[in-house]
Design a protein that fits this description.
Elements: H1 10-13, H2 15-21, H3 36-43, E1 45-48, H4 55-72, E2 79-85, E3 90-96, E4 109-112, H5 115-123, H6 143-147, E5 153-159
Parallel strand pairs: 4-5
Antiparallel strand pairs: 1-3, 2-3, 2-5
Helix pairs in contact: 2-4, 4-5
Length: about 160
Amino acid sequence: MNMSHASGDVAASDPLAVMVLSYLDDPEIDLHADNPEVERRLNTWHYSLPIGFDLAAVAAALQHVVRQLSKRHSGRPGTFYCWYDEQAGQLRCSLTSKTVDELPFGGRYRPTPDVTDVLGLAASDAQPGTIPWDELTEVEDSAESSQRTPDPFPVWAAALS
């Protein structure tokens, strides 16, 4: 990792923070407003969660990434965002030319200005990427059950400035 991106001891303090900061080392990350599929494919990173990650260090790393991306893409509109994928047990981050209200999700999401809303969800997952048997429920085969939509998931998004 190019440690010139590190801010203070953030990179050295936590393995997940180090992985998040490495986002800045990928030269292919760029805004592609004319091609959202390329933008999504090149800019979306997935991080498996180490046990007991330092929430404050990861939050600081994510904020640092936004500041550096803002410098790199100065004058170009964009949004850096992250969410916790409960099914995969991963923290995911991406960069898009879209606004926070237009993020490329197929489902409902809830923008949050506080990154700890996302990181807290990840930190509280005792078994990332698995669903305990006692949390499984019987699926009803009816029109009513097929029309239910899951609650929106939190997404932290920061506009590049």
